[in-house]
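User: My instructor asked us to take a sequence, write out its structure as tokens, and then describe one feature of it. I'm not sure where to start. Here is the sequence I was given:
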Amino acid sequence: MGAKEKQAYKDIKAGKREPVGTEKGWLNMKPLTERPEEEARAIRQKAAEATHRIKAAKKNMKEELLAMLDDEEIAKALAKEVDITAIRALAQEKGTSLQTLILASMGLQAIAGNVKAADFVRDTAGYKPTDKQEIVADIMTDADRALLEKVSRRITGNRTESGVKDTSEESE
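Assistant: Let's start with the prediction itself. The structure tokens for your sequence are:
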């Protein structure tokens, strides 16, 4: 909320002006910090449940797509490139959801040559190629290594890796 909105909110709360449009909703808004603990906990719990439902639906979509791709009847219907009404009838017969119809529609479009639909089906099924690139490079030069060794000896009290005090560096 910007400065203008904050000032408008204060003016409305103080009764200096009437709310307009979305400002009417501000009157009902109350931060969780200003609510009783039980009410705030209930709101947080509802939000968490909604998040879990969304995540479960995404997971189910992958599982449903994989099951649909394995279902011979649906595969035959898709292979014949029948229209979505035939898929809808088959889905209703099997008691499936709108999600199945969406997946079947994307399958039909993929078969028809829609590259984005094919990408959607591939990605949803879990076969998305990784975008990882491995770069192997040695960024340290011999001079850098020598400098690090020198700093290390100074920090550790002029001791070498063997633990013997190095006197060649003391004159520097």
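For the description part of your assignment, you could build on this observation: The mean pLDDT is 77. Try explaining in your own words what that tells you about the chain.
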